[in-house]
Write a structure and sequence with these properties.
The chain is of the alpha/beta class. It contains 5 helices and 6 strands; from the N terminus they run ββαβαβαβαβα. Helix 1 packs across helix 5 and helix 2 packs parallel to helix 3.
Length: 148
């Protein structure tokens, strides 16, 4: 069973949990979206670490063993594009999923840029949590983090 997620958010302490599950770092500034996706990933058997912005997400990625990152693009502190760049310099092979929906007029363009900078997969908001879970499972299988 997966325990409580490690969390880095402003004003919230880090809670520790590790049980050997594949780990997902979820970086999302929208609290409702973050909690919804965190729950969906946990129910799928992943150990989930969460951060409310790219700056805190990169800090967490440098402190913990992270297998897969899911990052929003439009966030305060450090946006998803900068986050992808920093994560790629730290862990070039780590699968990264970029998600975005904040700017519908430029969403396709922004996600294309995210792909070119190193996002392994991209997803446009809105999407059902099950879609993200399936993408993360696919990436985990490809990286031999899960059994088929």
């Amino acid at each position: 069973m997966v325990g409580k997620a490690d969390t880095i958010t402003a004003g919230r302490p880090v809670e520790s949990s590790a049980d050997g599950s594949a780990t997902v770092l979820l970086i999302e500034d929208d609290i409702l979206m973050r909690e919804l996706l965190e729950l969906a990933l946990q129910r799928a058997g992943f150990a989930v670490f969460v951060a409310e912005n790219g700056k805190l997400g990169v800090e967490l990625a440098l402190k913990r063993k992270i297998d897969i990152v899911v990052t929003d693009i439009f966030m305060p502190e450090s946006d998803g594009i900068e986050t992808i760049r920093k994560l790629r310099s730290h862990a070039p092979e780590m699968p990264i999923v970029a998600i975005s929906g904040s700017n519908p007029n430029r969403m396709s363009e922004i996600l294309t840029i995210a792909s070119r900078l190193g996002a392994t997969e991209t997803v446009s908001k809105p999407f059902p949590p099950s879609e993200l879970v399936e993408i993360v499972k696919k990436l985990a299988h490809a990286a031999n983090l899960l059994r088929p």
